[in-house]
């Protein structure tokens, strides 16, 4: 916004279904500043000039939920002015994706670009954990397909009886 280095209009749905504006501290001199200019969801949209899906991660600054942040850069007259974005609770996305994955007789997993398991129809993987590497077609997976629209997500179908790396601990 004109005259402000930092500005955000962040609206949040309450458990009762209402909507309220979330007020954050943007003062860079403050110990509890919400410095979104340094956050990956902002930096990736700004630097890549494309839509970004970041996460899932725990949103300690706002909702305290496990979320995905989706952003799109905004340009005016050829110059970057900011991003437009939305947060989606990972549980809401997982519920919908599991319904789709359960239609498959094969074990399948949806993985983010950061190697995080987003959804699965198998106890072989745990949602939220990080795989040691991105799945590739070969000995462990019969099929690996990228989800369209620039998410960086992959859907992988496990080969019957194959040893598939589970997860590695993450911080």
What key attributes describe this structure?
three-stranded antiparallel sheet, 171 residues, mainly beta
Helix percent band: 10-25%
Q: How many domain modules?
A: 2
Shape: elongated
Overall pLDDT confidence = 84
For the record, give the distance between the C-alpha atoms at the N and C termini, rounded to a whole number: 36 Å
Biggest sheet details: 4 strands, antiparallel
What topology does this entry show?
Elements: E1 10-13, E2 19-22, H1 40-48, E3 52-58, E4 66-76, E5 79-89, H2 90-101, E6 108-111, E7 117-120, E8 141-146, E9 154-158
Antiparallel strand pairs: 1-2, 3-4, 4-5, 6-7, 6-9, 8-9
How would you explain this protein's 3D organization?
The chain is mostly beta strands and 171 residues long. The protein folds into 2 domains: 10-89, PAS domain (Beta-Lactamase, 2-Layer Sandwich); 104-158, no CATH class. It is 12% helix and 33% strand. It has 2 helices and 9 strands, in the order E-E-H-E-E-E-H-E-E-E-E. The protein has a 4-stranded antiparallel beta sheet with strand order 7-6-9-8. A 3-stranded antiparallel beta sheet has the order 3-4-5. A two-stranded antiparallel ribbon has the order 1-2. Strand 1 (10-13) and strand 2 form a beta hairpin. The longest helix is centred in the middle third of the chain and has 12 residues, at 90-101. The radius of gyration is 19 Å and the shape is elongated. The chain starts with 9 loop residues before the first strand and ends in a 13-residue tail after the last strand. The model is unreliable at 166-171 (pLDDT under 50).
